[in-house]
Structure formats: structure tokens, C-alpha cells
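Page header: ASSEMBLY MODEL / two components / 692 residues total.
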Amino acid sequence: MNEQESGSLGVVIPLEESKNKLASIKPLVDLTRADMERVNQLILSKAGSDVQMIPEVANHLISSGGKRLRPMLTLAAASLFDYRGDNHIKLATSVEFMHTATLLHDDVVDESDLRRGKSTARMIWGNQASVLVGDFLLGQAFRMMVDVGSLDALDVLSSAACVIAEGEVLQLSVAKNMETTEDDYLSVIRAKTAALFAAAAEVGPIVAEAGRSGRNALKSYGMNLGLAFQLVDDALDYGGKAADLGKNVGDDFREGKITLPVILAYRRGTEDERAFWRDAIEAGNSSDANLEKALGLITKYGTLADTIGRAIHYGTIARDALAPLPDTVWKSALMEVIDFCIERVN
Amino acid sequence: MNEQESGSLGVVIPLEESKNKLASIKPLVDLTRADMERVNQLILSKAGSDVQMIPEVANHLISSGGKRLRPMLTLAAASLFDYRGDNHIKLATSVEFMHTATLLHDDVVDESDLRRGKSTARMIWGNQASVLVGDFLLGQAFRMMVDVGSLDALDVLSSAACVIAEGEVLQLSVAKNMETTEDDYLSVIRAKTAALFAAAAEVGPIVAEAGRSGRNALKSYGMNLGLAFQLVDDALDYGGKAADLGKNVGDDFREGKITLPVILAYRRGTEDERAFWRDAIEAGNSSDANLEKALGLITKYGTLADTIGRAIHYGTIARDALAPLPDTVWKSALMEVIDFCIERVN
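Prediction written out in full:
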């Protein structure tokens, strides 16, 4: 499908209050700019190794232009509680390394060729290097956490590491199974995406030695923001501007990945349509013609709009999680990120 | 090659003192039996997950009959310093999980079909599950360390995790390169094997709150024991009893892995023989006929005996590392493990 078609998704987002301008990540980027420079330096330094292949592989992914949303969350969450030390820099870098390690392993697991419009590391250096450099970055992440010395932060982040891996395995075991329910799907994205957002946000108040209610607020914010983020990502796979995102429209379809737009279309479909989905996803008949037909069914049942609707639902929970905290520029920037994540779809 | 041939290696081990009986791991096994039962229970419990595939994959490897040498080292190293608490159980389990995670990832990286005589997890559940369950076990290992709450133990084990991954990448980058020196090879096995032995031993005195000299002694013991262990392992690949070990003789040869028996045979060979090694290892002509020829050259230049000789060298350093410590049954069991690791070759 060409970009014009895929870009003409035209989902109407029922924002609670109508706005003249789109939400932006810019306030968060501006507020964390100085700290993020230090994070970026630490990333480069900790991805270094005498073993030449390690910085090569790591920098390929690190320099590929991700937004670095997760470490920004950690920095902002610490600053939200007036943190003045240096440890949030190390924790933010740990979070980004955990994410990068996951991406390296994911590309091997998903057999992906492209990420953010560039060849994946596994296509250039092979699966072997991707697995091992991922392990190295995960090890470096833990070393930085240990260096910070907060057992609470270590607890939150090591638990997240387990949950993420568990979620990926769960995803593997529901893959290509059209009987997957929305609840199964939610369990997967809660574990594989939202858990790291939650941990990234929670270690902010931890390092700032805020109390339990602050930790819970940021954890809930991160968790629900992560759910919204992944829901939108999964919608974009069936309708976003592939070129902008460096993704191919229909990647999930071709991999037989079960995401909400497909789950809803399957459940709402006729018996014939369900047979089509089983043939396409379970039997792997994911030709371009079948992708066109899948997009038609997704449009017919309005499942992209409903997927975005679910994202808005979780975004609202994230918003209310932060609501009781004092109004500061940090809070307002974190609030705007919720809308930004959802409005990416346009 | 049949087992009789491969078993007739006949390397004479020049032990410093002649002995009537072979060294055994039995004293260590007997001394740690009660604690190892608790470790085994913890292994089963921490490899559990609601995601069914995780315990399946983990138990496949965990139940496959490894000796569990590394966790026994941790237990014995703690008991050597009169440790009376419970935390050594968790640390020993963490060490075994780190090892298991490494094996799962190694099998993917090496594309191995067999481990200890059984199909590898990746042959049964695929590379994907092997990568992800490895990640899960690594995460669980860190959670148990965090639970123990010793930042020193966390530091030692997280640093080991990095070094191990670094060593695996280094191994990848020297793979199939016949110009690899003995020093390059030593760097690889120091990182990929000996570092975890060293960490496993060092966390014993850490948890027992022994002083710096106790930590250093056990770290040095573990490091040198690990070097000896890997050297013997690499010798066995060209001459051990494959059936006993669950390995195929010549696996390393077929994978183009550069180990000391090959490095020495290459360096001591004629120009023609060096051309043969380059063809076999670098160009991948690892037919059975070429394996026979390789074994002939290894015999011609006595490189298995010399590889074992290097193992004895490191074994002696391990022995001297422990020497100043009080004579106890624990020390004597740890000493005997050194000889056991080396004498496996017969």
C-alpha cells in the first residue's frame, strides 16, 4: 500500500477538551535537555568496550534516533520531586540500556529486518552479536544501578527485567493464535512495554527519596502511559505513515502478531471473515492482497479507532495518577506526553 | 570417530605428587548436599511462571544433569568462612541462573544441536524461547541478589555478567581466525568461563562478611579453577569420551572455534599444515576426513597434553590462592575439585 493510503487513516480522536494545537513532547525535551546530554555521554561511555564489536553494534542502535522517552521519564520523575543529585542520570541510562537490550533481543526473536527505517543490528552483525551485545548492555545497566546503591531502585528495575522477558515469552506463546482475547493481549503489552515505562517513572521518586504515595503515583502514570503508547503503536502498524516511523505498514500482520486491531476485527467478523484471519495469521498467508483485505476488515469494524479509544482510556488513568501532585512545569510536561503519545496516530 | 578411539587419548598428567586414587568432586558434593537441596528447590520455584513455556524451557536445561559446580562453589566458599545464614542459598541459585541463561544464549549463538547428550532448548522450542527464557532467568538472578541486599555481591555478580557477555562477543570476533594467539584465547576463556567461577567463589566470603584477603583468595581460586576447567573442556572436545560428556568430539572443530589445542598445532605446524588449518577452520571445510587429519596433527604436536599442562599451571595457582586459609574439610574439598577438573580428561 502506498503512503497516501496508509496515511489517510483519519481516526477522529475524542479528546476530552478540544485543543487548537497538537500535544508535544517538546516541553519534556526542553526541561530535560541538560540532563539528557549527560545521559547521552554516559550511554556512549558505558557502551564502550575494548571488544570493538560491542560499541559498533550498540552505537548503531543508540544513534538510530529513538526519542529516548524512557530515560526522559526517569529524569522528569526525579525532578518532579526536587531531586538535586546525580544518580538519576545513571538510572536513566540504565533504563535506556535495558530498553536497547530488549530491542536487540526482540529483533532476533521477531526476525526483523528494519527498525526505525534502518537495517537492524542482526542484519548487519548477525543474530549472535545482537544476543550478546544485548546481554552486555543489560549487564552494564545493572552495574550502573549497583553503583547508585539504591536497593529499592534495583528491586524495581530487576523486577521489570523479569516481567519484560516473561511478557515476551507470553507473546511468543499467543503468537498466531486467533483465539487470543483482549485480556491476553493486555497482559502481553503490560509486561513487555508498560512495565519498563512504570519502572522508569518509579525510580524517579525513589532516587529523590519521595514517599510511598509519590512512588505509586509515578508507577501508575508510567504503567498507563506505557499501555497507551503500545496500543497506539499497534494501531500505527495498520495505518501509520511507515516512512516517518521507520516501520513497514503490515509488519505485525506478516509476523502473525496478534494485536488489538486484529483481535477486535476477528471477534466482530462473520464466520467467513474469521476463517480469513485464521488463514492469514495462523497459517501465515500474509500476501499483500491479504494485507489489503485485512485493512479493509479493520476499517469495516472501526477497530483502529477503538484501539485508540482504549489508549485514551489508559491515558486518562495516567493523567489522574499525577493529578494530586503539585502543579509544576515538570508535571505539566509529563501530562502533555500522554496526549503526545496518543496523538502520534495523526 | 568411535568412542574407543576417542577414549584412548592417553594423556599422561604429570601430577605433582603421584596418587593412588583419582581426585573426586564427592567431598564437595557431600558437604554441600543439604544446602544444594535448598538451592534445587529455589531453582524450581524461581524458574516457575504463569507463562507455561518458561518453566518448560528452564527445567529442560536445569534437569539435564549438570554438576552444578558453580553454586556448590558459592556454598562452600561461604561455609569456609563459617557463614551461618541463608543468603548463600539465594546467591548460589543466582549464580546457577546466570550460568543457565548463558547456556541458553550460547546455544543460540553457537547454533548447537546437543548439550550434555540432550537436544538443546533451541532445537525444541526455537531460538526465540531460548533468548527470552535466558533473559527471564537473568532477571530472576538479579532479583534474588537484590533480595539478599548485599551491594558488594551485586557488584561482583553484575560485573561478571558484563565480562561474560564481553567475552562471548570477543570469542565471536576471533572465531575462524587462525592468527588468534594463546593470549587472545586466554582473554576469551577468562571472560566467558573463569569470571563466573571467580564471582561464584568470591560472593561466599562476601556474604560471610569475611575481609578483603578472604575475598581475594576465593576470587583467585575461582578464576584459576575456571581457566583450568575450560582448558580441559577444550582438550576434551578433541579427545574425550563424547558419550559420557554428552558432547560430540570435534564440535569445536566443526564450528570453527579456535581453542588452544588448535592454536598450538597451527603455530607448531609446517606451512602445508597451516594451510590445512586455514582451510578447515577459516573456510569451514570441516569434513570427517578433515577432523581425522586435525586429530592427527594435534597428536603429532602433542597439543592436548600441552593444553592439559596449561590447566595444571592454573590449577597450581588456584591451590596456592587457598593455601593460607585454615585447614578445614571445606578447604580440602575445594582443593580436590581442582584436581578433579583436570583429571576429567582420563
